[in-house]
Amino acid sequence: MTRLNADLLTTRVADGIADAISRADELLESVLHAHGGVDRWNTFEKVSAAFVTGGGLMPMKGINTNPKPLEGIATIHHESTVVSPFGKPDQRMVFTPERVVVETTSGAIVEERSNPRAAFAGHTLSTPWDLLHLAYFNGYARWTYLNTPFLLAMPGFAVTEIAPWHEESEVWRGLRARFPDGIASHSKEQDFYSATTSSSVVTITTWQLQVVFQSPSTYTTSWRPTASASHQNGALTCVGQSWGLCAIFSSSQLI
């Protein structure tokens, strides 16, 4: 290959990368706009919601789910979550990626664990969880769900456009997000697909549940907001190979 041809190829590759980045940025901007816009979102500090969870995963982990709604409060500009009550009526859990704590409502520490992700090493689908395993899972999962899709605009997230999702007769454009090292979630890479209907924005996410097992199996979350609500209210369902996980969020507020 001559020097001229090599330079031409390099230019075309660079142009192609720049075009792909531009398309991904345009798609992300349109998704954020459909959810109310990132400028408005960034004027708030926290998002709160009541949620009820169910499905087959928690019983497989030896966890009895609470049929009553729990309150979750997730920060917007960094990753932390508080869920209450947790374990007992007078307890709550406090999550950050580096540490999880179960404490009383007066702030006395009941249990705590630093570097909580490491506590899942070697786990399989049937490995039981303790209360701190559950606190870590609850913390990052609720933070991710309540901050979607605005978390994709946070520093350190990298997005690229991917092949579309086909939902019956509809074709939804998709984004693959690579999470930065400081953010805990189901997996390092997750795919997001959104479609705007006359009454709501529907988001589908695919991810690998790495805290359950280290296999590359992919699971799908379908987030369907209620017709009259903001994007934080709605039903979230996840379908796996031999288990299910679902959550219903309501009464959300931006704080």
Tell me about this structure.
By secondary structure, the protein is an alpha+beta fold. It has a single domain, classed as outer membrane lipoprotein receptor (LolB), chain A. 22% of the residues lie in helices and 38% in strands. It is built from four helices and 13 strands. A 13-stranded antiparallel beta sheet has the order 6-5-4-3-2-1-13-12-11-10-9-8-7. Strand 11 (219-225) and strand 12 form a beta hairpin. The longest helix has 32 residues, at 3-34. The chain is globular. The N and C termini lie far apart (60 Å).
Task: Record keyword descriptors for this entry.
255 residues, alpha+beta, outer membrane lipoprotein receptor (LolB), chain A, 13-stranded antiparallel β-sheet, globular
Topology, pairings included?
Blueprint: H1 3-34, H2 38-41, E1 46-55, H3 57-60, E2 70-75, E3 81-84, E4 91-96, E5 99-104, E6 109-114, H4 131-147, E7 158-167, E8 170-178, E9 189-196, E10 201-207, E11 219-225, E12 234-239, E13 244-254
Antiparallel strand pairs: 1-2, 1-13, 2-3, 3-4, 4-5, 5-6, 7-8, 8-9, 9-10, 10-11, 11-12, 12-13
